[in-house]
Specification:
This protein is an alpha/beta fold. It is built from eight helices and ten strands. Helices cover 31% and strands 21% of the residues. The chain starts with 12 loop residues before the first strand and ends with a helix. The structure holds tricarbonodiimidic diamide.
Length: 234
C-alpha cells in the first residue's frame, strides 16, 4: 500500500543559526513571546526608574523586537505579549514584593504615568512601538515569570505550541525567569540577544551566556536577524 504524506510547510523545521548550536524551529509549533515591554520599565517615571535604574538602557531592544514581531505576524505565527503588574486594589501583590527595597516610591504609588505597576494605568501598558494587535493574547502577570499565576501554559498547550522565541525586558529578571519556567515545562526556547535588554549591560551579557551554557542548559540564543531570516526564507 502506498501512503501519501502531505506535509504543511509549517510542520517542517527550519534551521536557525544559534548558540550553542543550530535551533530547529518548527514554525507551526512556535510562538513569539514579548515580555513586559511596558512604559513602566522603558520610560522615565515608571517602576524601573523607581528602582533607581537608567531606563535608557532598554531602548536598544525595541527595533529588533519590532522587526521580529513584523516577521512573525507576516508568517502568521502566534504572538503573545506579557505585562507585569497588579490589580488596582493590590490584592495580587505579595507583602514581600510590596515591601522590597528602600526607595521612596513603591508599587501602587502615584507617578507621572499613573500608579506604579498597576493594571489599567498608562505606565502599565505596552509601548506604542510594540502595541498588540486585536486578537494577540496579552498575559497580565503578578510576578517575574510569565507562567506563574497566569493562563499562559494553558493557552500555549491549547494551540500546540512547544517552542518559544523569547524577547523583552529585562534579560536577567523577567525574561530569564520565564525562560526557566518554560524550560522546566518542556518548551524549547530561543532568546533574542538583541531583542532583550537589561538596566545592567553586564547582566544582559551574563544572562545570555547562562541561557545557552552547558550545550543549551535552558535554551538557545540568536540574533533577531538570524531568526527573521529563517522565518522569512522558509
Ligand atoms: N527590575 C527588573 O530588572 N525587572 C523587573 O522588575 N521586571 C521585569 O524584568 N519585567
Amino acid at each position: 500500500m502506498v501512503t501519501l504524506e502531505v506535509q504543511h510547510w509549517g510542520e517542517m523545521s527550519i534551521s536557525v543559526p544559534a548558540r550553542p548550536y543550530d535551533f530547529a524551529l518548527t514554525q507551526a509549533q512556535a510562538a513569539l513571546v514579548i515580555i513586559d515591554m511596558q512604559r513602566d520599565f522603558l520610560e522615565p517615571g515608571g517602576f524601573g526608574a523607581a528602582l533607581g535604574n537608567d531606563v535608557s538602557h532598554l531602548r536598544a531592544a525595541i527595533a529588533p523586537i519590532a522587526a521580529t514581531l513584523a516577521a512573525c505576524r507576516k508568517a502568521e505565527m502566534l504572538v503573545i505579549h506579557t505585562r507585569e503588574g497588579h490589580r488596582p486594589d493590590l490584592s495580587d501583590l505579595t507583602g514581600a514584593k510590596h515591601r522590597r527595597g528602600r526607595f521612596a516610591t513603591r508599587i501602587g504609588d502615584d507617578g507621572p504615568m499613573g500608579r506604579i505597576l498597576v493594571r489599567g494605568e498608562h505606565g502599565h501598558d505596552i509601548i506604542a512601538e510594540l502595541a498588540p494587535l486585536p486578537g494577540e493574547p496579552v498575559i497580565d502577570k503578578p510576578g517575574k515569570g510569565a507562567f506563574y499565576a497566569t493562563d499562559l501554559e494553558l493557552l500555549l498547550r491549547g494551540r500546540g505550541i512547544s517552542q518559544l522565541i523569547l524577547a523583552g525586558v529585562t534579560t536577567e529578571v523577567c525574561v530569564h525567569t520565564t525562560l526557566r519556567e518554560a524550560n522546566d515545562r518542556g518548551f524549547e526556547c530561543i532568546v533574542l540577544e538583541d531583542g532583550t535588554a537589561s538596566y545592567f549591560p553586564e547582566f544582559h551579557k551574563a544572562a545570555l551566556a547562562m541561557a545557552c551554557a552547558q550545550d543549551a542548559i535552558f535554551g538557545w540564543v540568536a540574533s533577531s536577524a538570524e531568526v527573521i531570516a529563517a522565518i522569512s526564507n522558509r
